[in-house]
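Its record is set out here:
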Amino acid sequence: MDNLHVVVKDINIRIEEPNNDNTTYSLGLTLKELLVINTNEQWEQHFIDRNVDKTADYYKMIKVSNLGIYLQVNEKNFISNNKTVDECYKEMQLLFPKEATKAKGVTYLMNPMSISIKMKKLNEDNINIQLTSSSLTALTTDNMQQQQQHDE
């Protein structure tokens, strides 16, 4: 487990729901990147070799980039309607927010957030966890309506 690295990129889970009363919805979750790596003391990626020093401290970093949840009410553009896989892929890419901004025309239940967690495990089994950066804002229903009006 010392050298377990996880990298997940460009995840967009989307549910599209047309209703009989002419209202349409899409709900989605976007994640630009999830990264779990070992690092050295300077938080640079590093391989841990327990054969060299079994009692050394070790460091792990977890980064989540641009995790957001969106809800589109009265959706006009269903991605799944009569499109090729390439067309769907291109449209789904537009739903990813750029760094520190929201995707254009998207109403968020949870604004895109990024967070970095640094953990240091001391050789005596103590763990020091440091939250280094985060931003998280949830939109209220009033804010969602204001954002929809602004986007139109």
